[in-house]
């Protein structure tokens, strides 16, 4: 994007699909409509986690990343549905195509949300609010799904705005309203402020943006480290980050949580064989090769470690990946403690590869196409 455009003049839209996975399931299965749907692992199995929940389930306090057993306790009538990621990805691609009718400056964050810079739009509409309305209407007409949109002059405020009136919301926060809006915002609503940080802020008497604004930048950095500088700027509505249309994935992999703890190396190697095949299929799908192979292990006591090895050249070869992962496993004395989860991932896709005397960059994988 033109660097001479003042950040206060940018027109940024953040689109966030409403309860995306659950809404797709309710769309495709009429018997689920109006009922509390939980997409994710079964509460009967160990390690099941909520991927998303319909709004009917959210009324009971069910949230993403919550253990499935806890979700069932909160909502005994919940219907648990296995995720269909291939379907969600197809829908996501259609949504991306709708975005591209208005701008090519699209920064996907996941399958169900993205930033759009419409400072200069392809159809010369000129109004970010009107473009957001057209996008929302197209998603409804073509996919029978609802989305919420936030519109502002920067990414941070647009993202917060998209969450203000869910579901099916549209919220505009203009330049003259940003500082007042940020001053009234509870600290836990600041994107990037997690529960632990929010609790710390409240113990310090910092409950709103206005409270944060009373502190100097040095005060904030002293109490919160590097993020303190970000808080100082953002509470004043300053966010000069550009929408990045070519964000690339840092790693690609797969992992699995087992129904019982593994205690034998043979069992673990057998599971790594399965996981490795999935990883290679995903690498092939996107034309990727990675130079660094990482093994992730979670133990029965929930302690987690990673081990990695970087190779001289990028690889997508199943045998090489498995050989490396199994060597990394052996280095951890695998039978010393029960293993609950194993994962393999590859990274360092951007290493320049020499091919016939020429250099080329490996294919880049958009986060919009990333696998959950």
Give the helices and strands, then pairings.
Layout: E1 12-17, H1 20-28, E2 37-40, E3 50-53, H2 55-58, H3 68-74, E4 79-81, H4 85-100, E5 106-110, E6 113-117, H5 128-143, E7 147-152, H6 155-162, E8 170-172, H7 178-184, H8 195-203, H9 209-213, H10 217-224, H11 227-234, E9 251-262, H12 265-286, E10 290-299, E11 304-315, H13 318-330, E12 339-347, E13 353-355, E14 358-360
Parallel strand pairs: 2-4, 7-8
Antiparallel strand pairs: 1-6, 1-7, 2-3, 5-6, 9-12, 10-11, 10-12, 13-14
Helix pairs in contact: 4-5, 10-11, 12-13
Poorly predicted runs of 5 or more residues: 1-8, 350-372
For the terminal residues, how far apart are their CA atoms? 29 Å
> What count of domains describes the coordinates?
3
| Fraction of helical residues | 25-40%
Strand content: 15-25%
Whole-number radius of gyration? 23 Å
Estimate the global geometry from the Cα principal axes: globular
Structural class: alpha+beta
The beta-strand count equals 14
> What is the CATH domain class of the largest domain?
Alpha Beta
CATH topology of the largest domain: MutS, DNA mismatch repair protein, domain I
* Oligomeric state as shown: single chain
How many individual helices?
13
* CATH architecture designation of the largest domain: 3-Layer(aba) Sandwich
Question: What string, H for helix and E for strand, traces the elements in order?
Answer: EHEEHHEHEEHEHEHHHHHEHEEHEEE
Biggest β-sheet, characterized?
5 strands, mixed
């Amino acid at each position: 994007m033109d660097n001479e455009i003042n950040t206060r003049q940018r027109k940024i839209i953040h689109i966030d699909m409403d309860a995306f996975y659950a809404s797709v399931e309710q769309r495709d299965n009429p018997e689920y409509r109006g009922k509390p749907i939980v997409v994710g692992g079964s509460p009967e199995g160990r390690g099941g986690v909520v991927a998303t929940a319909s709004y009917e389930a959210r009324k009971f306090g069910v949230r993403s990343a919550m253990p499935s057993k806890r979700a069932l306790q909160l909502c005994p009538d919940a219907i648990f549905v296995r995720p269909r990621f291939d379907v969600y990805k197809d829908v996501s691609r259609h949504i991306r195509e709708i975005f591209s009718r208005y701008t090519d400056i699209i920064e996907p964050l996941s399958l169900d949300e993205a930033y759009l810079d419409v400072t200069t739009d392809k159809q010369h509409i000129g109004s970010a609010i009107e473009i957001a309305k057209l996008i929302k209407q197209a998603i409804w007409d073509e996919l029978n799904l609802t989305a919420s949109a936030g519109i502002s002059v920067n990414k941070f405020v647009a993202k917060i705005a998209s969450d203000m009136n869910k579901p099916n919301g549209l919220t505009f926060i203009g330049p003259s309203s940003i500082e007042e809006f940020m001053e009234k915002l509870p600290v836990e609503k600041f994107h990037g402020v997690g529960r632990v940080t929010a609790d710390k802020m409240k113990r310090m008497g910092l409950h709103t943006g206005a409270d944060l604004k009373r502190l100097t930048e040095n005060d904030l950095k002293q109490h919160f480290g590097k993020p303190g500088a970000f808080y100082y700027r953002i509470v004043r509505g300053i966010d000069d980050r550009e929408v990045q249309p070519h964000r690339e994935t840092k790693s690609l992999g797969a992992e699995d949580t087992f129904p019982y703890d593994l205690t034998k190396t043979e069992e673990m190697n057998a599971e790594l064989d399965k996981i490795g095949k999935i990883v290679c299929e995903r690498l092939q799908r996107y034309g990727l090769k990675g130079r660094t192979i990482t093994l992730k292990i979670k133990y029965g006591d929930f302690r987690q470690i990673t081990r990695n090895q970087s190779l001289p050249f990028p690889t997508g070869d199943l045998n090489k990946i498995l050989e490396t992962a199994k060597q990394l496993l052996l280095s951890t004395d695998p039978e010393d403690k029960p293993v609950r989860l194993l994962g393999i991932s590859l990274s360092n896709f951007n290493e320049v590869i020499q091919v016939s005397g020429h250099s080329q960059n490996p294919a880049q994988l958009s986060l919009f196409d990333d696998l959950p």
